[in-house]
Amino acid sequence: MNTTRLLIASLLMTAAVACAQTLTEPGWYSANGQLSRAPAPSGATKQSTQPTGGEQPLGPLSGSTPGIAEAVTPEIQALARGLENDPLRIFNYVHDHIRHVLYFGSKKGAQLTLLERSGNDFDQSALLVALLQAAGYTNTGYQFGLLQMPYDSADHNDLHHWLGLTLVNTNWSNTTEYFSWLLGTRGYPFYLDVDQTNTLAFHRVWVTLTIGTNTYYLDPAFKVSEPVTGINLPSAMGLSTNDLLTAAGGTATTDYVQSLNEGALRNKLRDYTTNLVNFIQTNCPNASVEQVLGGQQVTTWTNGLSQSRLFPTDDYGGQMPVVNWTSEPTNLMASLTISLASTNYQWFIPALQGQRLSLTFDSSGLAQLWQDDTLLLQTSTSGGGSISVTLSINHPFGTWDTTSNTLIDNGNFDATVAANYQRTNATYALMYAFEPDAKWLRERQEQLDAYRQQGLADSSRQVVSETLNVMGLGWMLQSDRAEQTLSVQSGILNQYHHRLGRMAQEGSHGYYIDVYMQLDGLFMDNGVATQDWHRLDKTFDLSSYFSSAMEHGIIEQLQSSGLVAASTVKMLELASTNSLKIYLASSAN
Fold first, then answer.
1. Which band of pLDDT confidence, cut at 50, 70 and 90, is reported for residue 4?
2. What is the largest CA-CA distance in the chain?
3. Do 345 and 430 form a contact (C-beta atoms < 8 A)?
4. pLDDT higher than 70, residue 8
5. Is the whole-model pTM more than 0.90?
6. Per residue in 102-117, pLDDT tens?
7. Contacts (Cβ under 8 Å, ≥6 apart) of 286
8. Which residue of 259, 373, 403, 503 could cross-link 472, Cys pair, CB 3.0 to 4.6 Å?
9. 46 near 148, Cβ under 8 Å?
């Protein structure tokens, strides 16, 4: 984050935000919200794993626009060909290779789900539909409704193994309280306690595929995950916290630290790193990341294409029948808006498809908004050296109207934040990501290489904005990997509702990354007791420190040696080097 707001935005503005809040200030936030359990339905609840006559006829919901979430891109077309246009191979690919992340609504769409190698049931279903359509199977659709899912099942087709939880269901009241917080934090509008012992119902999306006279029901996002035990990291590193504190030295009081020994601390951390690398090379040289850190391993799908649903549906006493769509509806889709100089532009986020967004200002103050190399908006600006630019994100979160069977969007976890941008001689890559994968970064690096091979100058809009985009995605990827690593060690399920900001090159000022709109959906994997919330808070705090350090790290990695970049952590380092006191503010002092 740029130096004018470092302490405010990176230190003070890391906080928990309640479910109903709309964020209006920059910063990194952790979401939490509790979802009330729905009352028992007034009529008899209908359950079925087979399609029934009570389902609504095939067709999109009001407000649906075909082809946004499930748009077929050249990369999706090529992947379908690589899978020999075989529907079973296509399903297996999505099931086995796309990581499930729990959240409600359509956010990534098919292409970004492929690039991030992760998504929820909306987004994995969109990728499956796009691949099937690219393979020539046009008789595809979606079904949306309540699915009854057990917490535990002998075959592991259950919530426990789908979400990778360690919570043991010995007290159903505690288990339902846990899910009320988990589902509320991840934006779900409704859930139902089905049997008061082991089964919940909440909204899910799955795919229908008709081939000849057969209709198949495909749920690519549901996958059984089994725990993988990692190595003993403290032992492998030879970690001694006492030795680490001794190396840090300095002065430590209840209120502040001063004059830490950075050199000795760096050497001690280097030694631990060397020990860990030597241990892995000696004892488990071919281990996966999960086998080193621990985590979850998806069980490969071997059951073919199914003509019945894996879980029974629940129509909530006839009020909430399963709905059929031909495309994912926009009223359940996240959107992004940019506003400046009395004009604005809006996208449904799945339409971004992982493409570069950039905002440029020339020497006269002409502002241009680009998506890759398509000019979307152009406007003249005037005034001083800066201009206010507002980014707004809307999530399809709220409550469920059981009478009309539709979402009431009440603004949960939405964000609208204004920030100053340099009005002349500046280029900004507008950064967005959720749970990025290295594949996305590689694709953008290849695009940058293509621009340069075309002979475009280093000062051209294309090369400058894509260079910034690659740098920004590098930060997104590194900071996400740090949070994933911390989450696995801490028993936390990591997820981001949104990550928005800018990677900037400003004339006379230089470069910086400022992802000033970030909302974590971190949640515990085993309960909601006081100590569990404390564990979540610690993970969020540690992740924020690593992300801050990477703000200066990504700049220094890609610049000539000796050039220094700024971040909150860098300022703390400079304070310690100069023997300044670094205070921990609390209600006690």
1. very low
2. 77
3. no
4. no
5. yes
6. 999 999 999 999 999 9
7. none
8. 503
9. no
Q: Which residue has the tokens 């680490």?
A: 244
pLDDT digits (tens, 9 = 90+) for 546-581: 999 999 999 998 877 778 888 999 999 999 999 999
Q: b/e for 251-268, b at 16 or more Cβ within 10 A?
A: eeeeeebebbeeeebeeb
| 131 within 8 A of 83, measured Cβ to Cβ | yes
Cβ–Cβ < 8 Å for 201, 145: no
Amino acid identity at 282? T
Asked whether residue 10 carries a pLDDT value surpassing 50, the answer given is no
Task: Give the model's confidence band at 277: pLDDT under 50 very low, under 70 low, under 90 confident, else very high.
Answer: very high
**Count of Cβ atoms closer than 10 Å to residue 333 Cβ:** 24
Instruction: Spell out the domains of the chain, with CATH numbers in brackets.
Output: 3-32+334-562+570-583 (no CATH), 47-228+296-325 (3.10.620), 233-286 (no CATH)
Between CA 434 and CA 105 the distance in angstroms is: 14
Return the closest-CA partner of residue 330 out of 236, 396, 409.
396
- CA atoms of 53 and 74, how far apart (whole Å): 38
Amino acid identity at 197: T
Burial (Cβ within 10 Å: 0-12, 13-18, ≥19) of residue 111: buried
pLDDT of residue 14: 56
Determine the Cα–Cα distance for residues 354 and 465; give it in Å rounded to an integer: 14
SS (H, E, C) 362-410: CCCCEEEEEECCEEEEEEECCCCCEEEEEEEEECCCEEEECCCCEEEEC
Would you state the pLDDT for residue 242? 95
CA 351-354-357 angle, to 5 degrees, is 85
What would the pLDDT profile of 153-201 be if each residue is shown by its tens digit? 999 999 999 999 999 999 999 999 999 999 999 999 999 999 999 999 9
Crossing angle of helices 74-82 and 121-134, rounded to 10°: 70
Cite the DSSP H helix spans in 230-305: 233-237, 241-248, 262-283, 289-293
The per-residue pLDDT of the chain, averaged, comes to 92
Q: Report CA 264 to chain centroid distance, whole Å.
A: 36
Query: Helices H, strands E: what count in the chain?
Result: 14, 30
Which amino acid, 470? V
